[in-house]
Amino acid sequence: MKRICLQADPSWAGERIDKFLAEVMEDYSRSFLQKQFKEGNITVNGKAAKASLKVSEDDEVVVFLPENQEPDIEPENIPLDILYEDDQLLVVNKPKGMVVHPSAGHYSGTLVNALMYHCKDNLSGINGVLRPGIVHRIDMDTTGALVVCKTDIAHQSLAEQLKVHSITRRYRAIVHGNIKENTGTIEGAIGRHPVERKKMAVNVRGGKEAVTHFKVLERYGSYTYIECRLETGRTHQIRVHLSSVGHPLLGDTLYGPKKCPFPSLQGQTLHAMILGFIHPTTKEYMEFTAPLPEYFVKLQRKLKGIC
């Protein structure tokens, strides 16, 4: 069985262990974790734990996961927009509507399926069979640059750069409202929403530090075109932060208005435009630009009244 060791930090003291695990093991469903409790596969300080157990500071939580819980992922001949490739890594321009790695309900048509066909067996194995080569991800309806690792050496190097926030990540976005400031910084720890589990939220128990810098590029009356620079990389960070200051992304019905003013728009208007990092073997800084997708450019023209 696979053994996962977790340490409870002070912010979780007094919370139920099932809530703690649902937060820190977000790739696993609550029903799957509940099954592990029933089968005695979760221990606290060496003793089998019940889901209702309250976590104490510095508790050692161990989860024993059964082998072969992950389905076989098949290579698929899906075209890739490759911005750069060598024997260590590749940078792809992910299209809108594509899921990065397989998960419940998405075991085909993902970026990983396409990468397995393109790279054959040349993908890092650090993140397991569901996420070979994947060191970071962007949301299904977010477009843009994503680095994929072919070797474990590349993966370890990129993961460390992500950890110390040294990777350059600049996004383009269109938000609701006219942002008054030309530049600004949004800070607020991000964690799983306490009630709506598909959402993240700011300033919640167990949240992790998050910092987003923004710069206004153009104003379109009731909308603003901005660049966002990530200092950290939390789940849904840009979407959550901008919503928290009253400027949700245009098209983001999860964190913004439930009805999009542009019915043909699919999901949030967010594009990972610039990605820069130190190459794992040459040690040279490399930077890549993913051009704005066609839908984004057309929407800008419409907002400017040019169409």
UniProtKB/TrEMBL annotation:
Responsible for synthesis of pseudouridine from uracil. This is Pseudouridine synthase. The keyword Plastid does not apply. GO terms for biological process: enzyme-directed rRNA pseudouridine synthesis. Belongs to the pseudouridine synthase RluA family. It is an enzyme of class 5 (isomerase). Its EC number is 5.4.99.-. CDD domains: PseudoU_synth_RluA_like, S4. The active site is at 139. It comes from Candidatus Blautia stercoripullorum. Keywords: Isomerase, RNA-binding. Signal peptide: none annotated. InterPro entries: PsdUridine_synth_cat_dom_sf, PsdUridine_synth_RluA-like_CS, PsdUridine_synth_RluC/D, PsdUridine_synth_RsuA/RluA, RluA_PseudoU_synthase, S4_RNA-bd, S4_RNA-bd_sf. It catalyses: a uridine in RNA = a pseudouridine in RNA. Residues 15-79 form the RNA-binding S4 domain. One of its GO terms (molecular function) is RNA binding.
